[in-house]
Amino acid sequence: MLKALIVDDEQHCIDRLERLLRSSTHNIQIIALCKTIGEAKKEIAKITPDILFLDVQLGNETGFDLLSQLNSIDFEVIFTTSYDKYALKAIKFSALDYLLKPIDNTELDNALQKLRQQKNLKDASKKIDVLFHNFKESNASSKRIAIPTVEGFTI
């Protein structure tokens, strides 16, 4: 199950996104709901989300301000906003997606599919890194690996 954090200063927008996420089949667990950048920073440090649903305009600040204040961004970001003019800036922050309000269920599903694919790629990359590390650290006589094939395994 992927942990999500929603950051938006409009309650009706939070409610809609929360409803859509709870009815989706993508196993998203909403860990926290924040209305300010300060709240969001504390929650990010506390829960380390897999995905951040981030409104662009948050009172006098922006979601970009939040991202700029973080030491590292080790989660995916999906911007949720009423403004299409920030799309290019979102790309520069490596946003996974950019959803315009009111959020469409199909567009959200597509974004969550991208999220799942991105998560699978990261998991596979970590496993390969561990494999190569273990392979390098093992003694010379045991440097063999079993590869699954249609016929069984090839050593």
Keywords summarizing the entry:
155 residues; alpha/beta; five-stranded parallel beta sheet; two-stranded antiparallel ribbon; 5 helices; 45% helix; elongated
Structure description:
- The protein has 155 residues and is an alpha/beta fold.
- It contains 5 helices and 9 strands.
- The strands form 3 sheets. It has a 5-stranded parallel sheet, with helices on both faces. Strands 4-5 form a two-stranded antiparallel sheet.
- The protein is elongated, with a radius of gyration of 19 Å.
- The model has no long low-confidence stretch (mean pLDDT 90).
Task: Give the terminus-to-terminus CA distance.
Answer: 35 Å
- Strand order, sheet with most strands: 2-1-3-6-7
Which range does the strand content fall in?
A: 15-25%
Shape: elongated
Give a quick account of the main beta sheet: strands, pairing sense, barrel closure.
Answer: 5 strands, parallel
Structural class: alpha/beta
Distinct helical segment count: 5
Regions with little confidence, pLDDT below 50 for 5+ residues: none
Helix content: 40-55%
Number of strands: 9
Average residue pLDDT = 90
Our Rg estimate from Cα atoms comes to 19 Å
Order of secondary-structure elements: EHEHEEEHEHEHEE
